[in-house]
Each structure stands twice: as structure tokens, then as C-alpha cells.
Sequence to fold (328 residues):
Amino acid sequence: MADLSTWFMGFKLQNPLVVSASVLTGTADGVERMAAGGVGAVVLKSLFEEQILAQIGKEKEGLDLDAYPDAEAFVNRTVWEKGTQQYLDLVKESKKRAGNVPIFASINCVGPGNWASFASRIEAAGADALELNIGYVPYSTALSSKNIEERVLSTVREVRAATKLPIEVKLGQNYSSLPNLAEAIRDQGANALVLFNRFFRYDFDLKKMKLIGAQPISTPDEYHESLRWVSLLYQRAGIELAGATGIHDAKTVLKFVLAGAGTVQLCSVILKNGIQVVPQILSDLSILVEEQGESALENLRGRMSAQSSKNPQEYLRLQYIKALNGGN
Fold:
């Protein structure tokens, strides 16, 4: 069997498979099942800022905030403490039951300001690392790309000031200059980028004339854009990289390692097939590594990245060149 261990954010993981923040990791029982299934690390289900803000809104309904000005601050503080304490309890219990598998906490941020103090509490609860799941929607014409990127950077900056935990930032792909942003995120103290977040997808129910969710899980054809950017950013932005979205088998895992990823995040494939799919992926991955003439997966990291290519410009123009030449 090939050595499938990998180094990521200072951790030597037994393999690069990481369960992403999802319903799979929303309870300590789920975390225990994932860890026992053989993964390298587990990201806990995200604590969503929107959930807390929505609950605060409900608690304020019917209150006369003009007559009782202190009531608003009391409700904000009470709901925030209750919501975050439940998450801290999840961190503590998951650490007890995951054995030697590292536990990454995850917070889903819609704005800077609240998360810095909470990050220090996550560290005290025993999390091994922290994932910042950041997605700001440019809802106003007044918001420029610079405004959005500064929100990302300020969130990372505030959290880094509050904790010594390794930080990975999970981004969507809709940024005008991802290499520049990646380097700036590195400069604010983040250790790694996870590329990319698969955001909630919208659709319309034409009969009921209402907004509904589209396909919630990924397909094996959705990894290409993530692969492109892992390959382009490897050893260029000075930050470690993880692949995400559409990773369903060992061949795709190996592609990401060849591109330069230290880990890959799995979710949909486990939802579809159960945790028993993990040993099969690892077995297939071991065979693929040996077929490359290597005894260790780490020896292959970045071998097919743009940085390692004899013709790095092909990574920027390959589709164009193929189209001109009539290729696929």
C-alpha cells in the first residue's frame, strides 16, 4: 500500500480526504462515524451568521424597543450566546469522539465584526483549526469588487487577531483576480484556501410561483474549475490549497494532488454512498499512486501544476488553443 499521508496547515493527516462542513458533520455522532470511516480530517457543520441574525429578529418581534432601549442589546447578546454555546458544545464533544482525526470548526460569515471573539472561544473549546466560509453577495450597485474583497480580508484579519488556530478560507469562484486576493488573504494570516464553495443554488417552481432550491449535491463533472485554480495558484500565492466540489472518486483526488492540493473535501459522494465509500477511494488512490511509480502520495503533489509545467502559458490558453486546432 502506498503512503497516503499528507501535510496540511501543520498537520500530518493520514490521508487527504476531509469531510466538508455539512449535515454529515452536524452532530458528534456524525463526526464519530466520519472519523471511524477513515478520513484524514473533519470540518464541522458551519455555524451560520444568518441563522443567528434570523433568530434575533424573531426574538425582537412584539418588543417595544423605543420604550425599552436596553431590550435590543439584551436580545442580541442572549441569542448570540445561546447559538454559539451550542456550537462550542459540538466542538468539545466531537473532539472527544474523533480520536486522532483533527477537527476543524467552521463559521459561515456574512459580515465582519462578530466572529473575532467567537474564534478565541472555538480555540478554547479544543478545535484543531478553523474554516472561514465566506460568501458576500454583491447585492447593491454601490458595492464594487474592491468593497467585497475588503470585507473578505477584514474578516480574516479580525479572526487572525483573535486566535492562533490554523485558518483556512473557503471561497466562491466569482472574484475578478483570485491570485491577487489569495495573496492578500495570505498576508492577513490565513494558512490555506479551499477552492471552491458550492453555494446554495436557486430555481423557480413555476406552478407555485415560489423560490426553491436546485440540485443540492454535486456531480462528478463539477470539479474542473476548482482544479484549474488549484493548479494556477500552487506555489504562486504563498498559501496552501485544498480542492472542493465534484470530487467523487480516487482519480479526481489524485488530479487535485497533482495540481498542488494538500487535501480535498468530500460531501456529496458520502451522502450518495455512505461513509463506506471512503475506504474504497483510499484503496483506489493507493493503486493509482503505485501506478505512477511512487510509494508516497506526497511525492506527486504539484507535479502537474502550472508552476511545474514546461509551458505554463498553456494553463491560461489551453482551451483557446484546442479550439483553434479543432481538438477537445
